[in-house]
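Note to self: the last two entries modelled the partners one at a time, which told us nothing about the interface. This time every component goes in together.
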Amino acid sequence: MTTETVTEPVPLARKDFVSDQEVRWCPGCGDYSILAQTQKLMPDLGIPREKIVFISGIGCSSRLPYYMNTYGFHSIHGRAPTIATGLKASRPDLQVWVITGDGDGLSIGGNHLLHILRRNVDVVIVLFNNRIYGLTKGQYSPTSEMGKRTKSSPMGTIDHPVNPLSVALGAEATFVARSLDIDVHHLLTTLDRAAHHKGTSFVEVYQNCNVFNDGAFMEFADKDVRPDRTITLEHGKPLVFGKDRNRGVRLNGTTPEVVDLGNDIAEGDLLVHDETREDPAVAYILSRMQYPQYPVPMGVFRAVQRPTYDDLMDQQIQDAISREGEGDLEALLNEGDTWTVE
Amino acid sequence: MTTKDGRIAPPRNGETQELDRVTIRFAGDSGDGSQVAGLQFTNTAALIGNDISTVPDFPAEIRAPAGSLPGVSSFQVSFSSYDIHTPGDAPDVLVAMNPAALKTNLPDLPKGGTVIVNTDEFTDANLRKAAYQANPLEDGTLSGYRVIEVPITSMNARALKDSGLNTKQIDRSKNFFALGLMFWLYERPLEPTLRWIDQKFSKNPAVSKANADTLKAGYHFGETAELFPVHYRVPKADLAPGRYRSITGNEATALGFLAASRLTGRPLFYGSYPITPASDILQELARFKNFGVKTFQAEDEISAIGSAIGAAFGGCLGLTGTSGPGLALKSESLGLAVMVELPIVVAMIQRSGPSTGMPTKTEQADLLQAMFGRNGECPVAIVAPATPAECFDMAIEAFRIALRHMVPTIFLSDGYLGTSSEPWRLPSVADLPTMRVDFATDPKTFHPYSRDPETLARPWAIPGTPGLEHRIGGLEKADITGNVNYDAENHDRMVRFRAEKIARIANDIPDLKVIGEEEGSLLVLGWGSTYGPALSAVQRARTRGLSVSHAHLRYLNPFPANLGEVISRFDRILIPEMNLGQLLMLVRARYLVDAVGLNQVTGRPFKIAQIEQKVNELVRSKVTVG
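The predicted structure of the combined assembly is written out below.
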């Protein structure tokens, strides 16, 4: 270990973020797309490579850090948020990403996810949701739809699924978004928004597992039907969707209602998306919208500001130092009642 | 007020008698302030130069109904004119603030001992709560003891009738009346406690004055009442010169970790979930924010250790703390730390198990959990302090080993060490060990899993260092590159590297020292908090001319390099432990020696006499055999 330091200019190309490791996901997996967009985003962030850390748990998604030429930590099942919290709290100068999946983040690691979100630790969490356990070869996951037949549920599941965004909003996460593996432009934009948010950013990515749960999202995510079966949330704009932009969503009390525009319904009657609302209630209502009853909302559901855990922790240290002065170990050891033996 | 015959012969009034050691136990309802009274007595005894040793005994964490048997809390302090190592096998004096306190503590008081009872609380209702069929003050229960009956509650109330406080508030001061009385009886000054009261209750002058007034009232009562014909003096102990303070093991532990941070110049990050008896460490470290210490109260034990691993990955001193059930939850993450070879420390304060067990009671039954409680071949370093003050040094030592060898290290203390106190000769910061941390910085020579030829430590390359970007994780690593690797030969090599790393720590720790002859018929070999009773038992046996030596292990994994050789020089080895023979199993397996155990799992520390008796037995049996 020598002390010579090599300084490197901030890399500007995607290839600088590609590691020398061979990517080992099944051919056709949605994970490739998420990796590609993540690598593509990195140069635009303007953060030196050595200041970026990817931390993951266990599962197919969690192999992503191996493929990023940054610092990385492929930890144990469900615990990535805990390692990320310790790293970010002790090293606020780093940009920390957590890569997780529906099993890793919502089943075995559900507790940690809840707490990192409520604390608002300044990290980006990307949850790959494929609604199946892929690495263990095809058991149902906490986001698998009720009644789903899998290897571990031959007669169909009897577990009511968890809705990742509803959970995140329940924990009052300050940034909550959803994107889709095959909608690469939307995915890149969403990850970019998440990376720039100060506080915990939670991004659910619908990701196709072409081996164990192929086509899980195709009903609404397929390119041909997507405009009619999904709705892209845009801040300050009414909820309009459809290939011909002729349908919309309005609120009837607390119930969303799909309406056709024209005749006596104008855009002014629709719900206008406000991602900055402090109260997460409307974002929660949106998070409950599922196909086929509703178009599936994509985009940023919530983006609000709240002090981050790491900043507050540093602030307390600064406050303590300005109040009591920099700690003096000798004085501390001699604190309280002491006596001298001659 | 009756004074019955006891072992202390009634001397003439006003006489002062000199004693070399006294052990007092304050016992009362958890709300009665026995801990405060005990601590104040301790500090005062220490300040005037006695050696001291204390042990509290708490009920379960949640306050039981007032006056009930499970609600009794006690604090035992032993103070002396010579060097002592335990808080005393048995009290000489029991202060019982209510019937429940008398009932639960009387069995520990030898016949002839003194009982000071608060007679006001011996009402029918309280007797029923303590499951007494008849009043023990009247039915002969206390015959053979020297009983001093004092109506503490009502005398305290009379002393404070003009204080302006309500009855409930007044009643809460009665521990100070009892304390004042004990101060008179043992010729202790009131000033240190008066100073403490002044500071502690500065925001509440009425309560402050009430506590001070009743403390003095108790003292004066001792002086004027004729129930104590004598009072006692315990002269100063002959301690090594230096500056001292009284400290508990958990306080010393927190200070040791802080010192490690100062010595390395790296920030300390403590992730912990509250758990008895380790929570003190979290609370202590949370006070040290102006030292840059970051404390994180995690959502669970797993998150606590995860955060420490994250902090260590970032180049900070990653620390977590827990007790037995928490270590069980941390075991998978501890395995991760072994695999990624990051230097975290786990402060493990043992308590009675299994499962939730008896959280406020002590035990040493997690040694094998610390050694082996993980999947795979997964060794960690283990150090164990022997006394409350030594927790400071061993906490520093835990980090020294973790950092130099890049291994997770368990600091294995217990509830008894954590909560008991003794005088601590304050070190000067300049005399503390030097410690340094070297981070890897050179991209030309860096490999994540290359190894230091001496220690086999891998380089510590922290995020923020340009050109050293690399990935670590729980999957098996290829030698040198650290890439994921499933090769059979490589796995075998890496498993052996991880074992050898721990083994080589033996080159970096002191040899085991023997107190007494270097060879002989019996060696008492201990670890952790059995130090006090084991050493005292050996000292007593030696004054009676028995050939017995004592050695105490501060390093449990690896063992000191000379342990096998030390063992081989004795005919017999006795290992006293507060478990069913865990060090015994390790020593027998490792050295093929027919060591014997003395085992107790009562949730209480050994008494000197228990170990002494076993020593006698073994030395005698040796003679018969030989």
